[in-house]
Design brief:
The protein contains 24 helices and five strands. The chain has about 550 residues and is mainly alpha-helical. Helix 12 runs antiparallel to helix 13. The longest helix is centred in the first third of the chain and has 31 residues. The structure holds zinc ion. The site of zinc ion has 4 residues, from helix 14 and helix 15.
Amino acid sequence: MKFSEMPYNRVDFEKLQSDFRQIIEDFKNAKSGEEQFEVHKRKYKLSDAYATVRNIANVRHDSDTSDEFYDAEQSFYDTVQPQYRELAVEYSKLLYSSPYREYLEKKIGSVAFKNMEIMNRSFKPELVPLKQEENALTTKYSKLLASAKIEWNGEILNLSMMRKYRNDKDRATRKRASEKTTEFFMANRDELDDIYDRLVKNRTQQARLLGHKDYLPLGYDNMGRNDYGIEQVERFRKQVKEVWVPFVSKLHERRRERLGLDKMYYYDEGMNFPDGNPAPKGTPQEILENGRKMYGELSPETKEFYSFMMENELFDVEGRKNKRGGGYMTYFPEYKAPFIFANFNGTEGDVDVITHECGHAFHGYITSRLYDIDEYNDITMETAEIHSMSMEFFAEPWISLFFGEDTEKYLQMHLEDAATFIPYGCMVDEFQHIVYRNPDLTPAERRQKWIELEREYRPYMDYEENEYYREGGYWQAQHHIYSFPLYYIDYCLAQTIAFQYKVRMDEDYKKAWDSYLALCKMSAKEFFSDMLITCGLKTPFEDGCLREIVDKLSAKLGL
Ligand code: ZN
């Protein structure tokens, strides 16, 4: 069904609550695993119906924030959502402690039960006041950053408006824009330190209430990590330091030569080419149509997926007045339909919508037609990003449709940016491990740790005379460090798998694609490492995983 024709009626929330309570009662009274599973299927139906109307209201609100009808609908769901959550948690506890667990585990999988175990052990009501304080602190951080008013050529700009000038073709402009930006951070350094200090202490206290020594195990639980732990992640970061950092340093050197600079400084980081970065050609409609050509040729599965998206109006990508900023992928379960929301702005980011976001959507499309077990869709973050980041590479044979004569430039930039991201992401991750393991570090000691990590992960980074960066303040602009603790390594793990696919598709495209398709189809049915191994991949925790990628990429690039 076309998005514009999908009917919308506000959910009768009282009826939904009483239906949910009935499901809970029937589940309790069921006399066998078979009976409980029948009740469980009613729960799928209820939650799918609810998610469908809620997501439709959400998208229609975002597509025109001045529409009063959907504005009211959006507020309605915001208000009732906590009550829905409460019922969902109550139900999940019942399911987890079912006397017919063995039968149910066969039906919905052991990953699902592991996830419930993690959810149950990471919460108790005593945490609520701390969690409220934690939310207030992260909101304070966001508001502080959003309040930035930077004077620029007679105008007042915010941090995201400054980004354009920080990446300006003119070197003096980008240097001045970077300095202006860090002036804001320097002026607010004490407050940023104070917010973070409170967050670290708050999270440590939450963990101790649950019997942990520090926040790390709880942080892993909060990320829903059901397969790997601190040691595995350490092994991955060790490989990054030993193998990946030297590789990125070479790429960095090559970029410096291309830019014609004697030395690269921090304000040159966003530059890939002296005459600016490549931008896609064509109107938004042409970009979408080129996506149809690309997915039509890539495989029968992607062809079917993309036609479905286009025929059912499941893209909203054009920038408009009153449209919400940013982009995301969402899903309408009752129609088995993914939906992509974006704001095209004429940069290479527009093509990411066709490659990256469609990677997420393709997974959703495929698995919803394959399974009627909702738990199979509960993928963790690193898995979700494999679907999307790998698709960016699988799109390479068709990238000239979007970039024309700039194709080579785009491919080079994409590879360099993806490679350079891994050490940065690992640094963000290791920093947080140090901080949470030592919650009593002072702000100055934290900054010192950051400086030491910079030397290991980004030895080529030169902050020139920028005092704020030289004194280890860089991390304070990284939203995730404040608001989504320990969520960042997920991108690095996914990027590593995407690079595995990159070197494999260079050798045998079809074979690499078959493995990717199998991985998408497995969804959250198996645990992360098992899934990778079944699909013929190496886990990023395994020694030699990065070495192999680096050797093959270096040979190809002549490094
Ligand atoms: Zn993504």
